[in-house]
Design brief:
The strands form nine sheets. Strands 25-24-23-20-16-15-14-27-26 form a nine-stranded parallel beta sheet. Strands 3-4-5-6-12-11-8 form a seven-stranded antiparallel beta sheet. The chain has a six-stranded antiparallel beta sheet with strand order 1-2-13-10-9-7. The protein is globular and about 80 Å long. With 723 residues, the protein is of the alpha+beta class. Helix 2 runs parallel beside helix 3, helix 5 crosses helix 9 and helix 11 packs parallel to helix 12. The chain is built from 14 helices and 46 strands.
Amino acid sequence: MLDVALGRRVVRVRFNDPKPVVGFNLPDGDPKPSVEVRGDTVRAWLGDQAVEISFKLEGMKSLAYKKLGVYEHVLGLGEKALPLDRRRARAVFWNYDNPDYKFGSDPLYKTIPFAIFIEKGRAVGVFVNTATYSVFDMGVGEYDKAVFEVYEPSMELYIIFGPAPMDVIETYTDLTGKPLLPPRWALGYHMSRYSYYPQERVLEIVGETLKYVPVSVIHLDIDYMDNYKQFTWDRSRFPDPRGFVEKLHSLGVRVVTIIDPYIKVEPGYRVFEEGLKHLTRTERNEISLFYGWPGLSGIPDFYNKEARNWWARMIEEWIREYGIDGVWLDMNEPSGISLRSDLGYTEGIFRGYFERMPLRDTRSIASIYQFYRDVVALSDKTPDPNAIHRLDDSRIARHYQVRNAYPLFQAMATYEGLVRVYKRPFILSRSAFPGIQRYAFVWTGDIGSTWESLRLSIPMILSISLSGIPWVGTDIGGFIGWAEPELVARWHQAMALAPFFRAHRIKHSNDTEIYTLPSIYREMVVKAIELRYRFLPYLWHLAWEAHLTGRPIIRALPLEFPDDEDTYRVDDEYMVGSYVLYAPIVEKGSSKRSVYLPMGLWYEYWVGEIFEGGSWIESRSSMPLYIRKGSAIPLQNSLLIYGEGSWIIYHGEEDLEEPRRTLITFDGEKITFAKDPITFEKLVILGKSIEKARVDGEEIQAKCDKNACEITISKTPKEITLH
C-alpha cells in the first residue's frame, strides 16, 4: 500500500496508489534521505533529522499521522485567518468564497496543504498533494499528533527536510516550481475599486492621485464589461477602450482588467459559441451550468490542454487588441453568486453519488457522512460537485475531486496567453493551489475594513509567503465596509513593503483615494508610498532572489531567527528580506508600539538610534523600521551599508534571463565592488564615524549625522576606502 521515492531532501510517499491531478517532479541531486517502511509506517531521516509518519484508510478517507513535539511549532498552511503559529489549529482545504471573513473563518479562497514543523530551530515540511476536500489537524483532535485527512481513499505526501526553515521552503519550491519574476512596474502602487467607470472618470481619478504620489497600475473591475460578459467592453462607459488605455500609458500607468471564469450562455456571444466545446460538462454530456455575474453560465474545463489552449488564445487576443498590461483572475475557486436559496440542489447531487458507493463497515458510513456534511455545507457557491472534468491523460474526474486545483490550471492558461505578448506577464489570482507561484500574484480576498482585519492581514500574508507564494498582498483599507481615514492610513503603512501593494474597495463603501482623505491621514499615506518607492531597488533585488531560490520577499521572524522562541509569537512584524525589520502600528489611536528585535544590532531608520536585539523596545516612529547589522541594501539612488560582510546584490532589467550580480565586500575600512557594476549617487554607512572617503582614487568628504555618514558618488565605483 506504500510506495516511496526519493529526491534531493525529499521523500515522496504514495499511499494506496493515488492519481493526483497535478504532478510534481522530485528534485534531482543529493543529499537524499534514507527510508524505512514498516507496514503502514514510513520512517525517514537525513543527517540528524528523523520523521515518522503512519497511514490509515478509514472508509473513503485516508489519514496520515505525525507526532507533535512538546516544543514544536507549525507554520504555513497558506491562507488562514489564524495566528502565525498554526499549532492547535484545524485547517480545512476547500477553495471557498468567504467574504468579510473574521479571525478563525475557514476555509478561505486558497488551498496550500503545506506545513513546516519547527522544533528547537530544526525544520521539516509536510506537503499533501491533493485537490479534493482535506483537513490538517495540528493537535486538536489528537493532542500529541498532527493529522492529515484527505477525503479520498489514497494520498500522495511529501516529507521535506531542512534543517533550516528556509531550506524547507527552497526545496518545496524546487518541487512545486520557482516563483515568477514579474514586470518591474508590478512592484509599484496599484489602484482599484469595484468599480471605476466611465473612462473619463478613471482618467480623472488617476490624474488627481498623481498630484500626490506615483501610480503604477489601475485595475478595472467587472463594470467595464458588457453585462459582465468576459472579453467585452461596455461601450456606453468605455467608448474607446484602446484610446483610453493609451492615455493611461502616456501617464506611465498600466492597465489590468478583471476576468472571471464565467462564460455566459448566450447565442450570438462569440466567446460562448467558440468556447462551447471547452466548457465543463455533466454526466449526461450537457453543459454544467451555474450562476455567475453575467447570469446562467458555464466554466472552462481548464484541466485539459485543449481548453487551456483556447483560453490562452482568448487572453492573447484581448491583450493585443486593447494594449492591456495584465489580467486579474477573480471568482476562480471557482465560485458563483446567488446560486441557491437552500442546499437541496447540492444534497440531491451528493445523495445520488453516495447511494452508488459501496459501504463496507460503520467507519465507511461515518466517513462518508462527515464528507457529505462538510462538503454540502461548502457547496452553496460552487458548480455542480459532480460535474465532469477531462484531464490531460484522458482520465475523467468529478469537480469535487479536483476542485482546489482549478485556479492553478486557469493561471497556467492565462500565463500562456500573456507570455505570447510580454516576456514578464502579470497575473493576479484570488484563489490558489501549490505551483501557482510560477504564474501569478495573489491577495487575501474580500477582507473587511476593520482594525481586526488589518491586524489579521499581517500573519495571513506572512503565512502565504512561507507557503511558497512570495507575491502576496491584501486589499489596502479593507474591501468590505466603511473605512475610517486613520485605518486607511495605517493600512497603507502596514503594507508599504509588502510584495503586492494595492488599494481596493467595494462600491457600496466610502471613497478612500488619497485626495479624499483629511490632510493628516493623506500625509501618512504619501509618506508610506514614498517609503515604498525608496525601497524599490531592494524589493527588486528580493524579486530576483525569490525567482532564483524560492525565498519569500517578506518573512515571518522565525524564518530568519528559528532558534528564537519569542519570534513565533510575533504576528505584527515582518522581515523584508534578511536585512530589514518592519513593525507597523496597527492599533487605533496609537502613536507608539512595542517592537521585538531579535538578536543582533539594529539601526532605527528614522531617528538613527542603535539597539541591542533580543529585547522588546518602545518605538514612537509612525512607521517603525530597523536595519539589521551585517547588511547592504540598495535604495533609490543610494546604497546603504551597516556592518562588515560580503553580499550579492541582484539588479538589472526584467528582460534579462539572469540578473546582474554585484559582489560587495566591506572589511570595516575598504568597500570593493566586483562582477557586474552597480550605479548609485550616495553611499550611506551606518554605525561608523568617518571623515572622508577615497572613491577609485578621488577623495570625497563625508557628511555625518548621529550614526549615519553619507558620501556623494559621481561614478560607478570599484573600490571605496573609508577614513
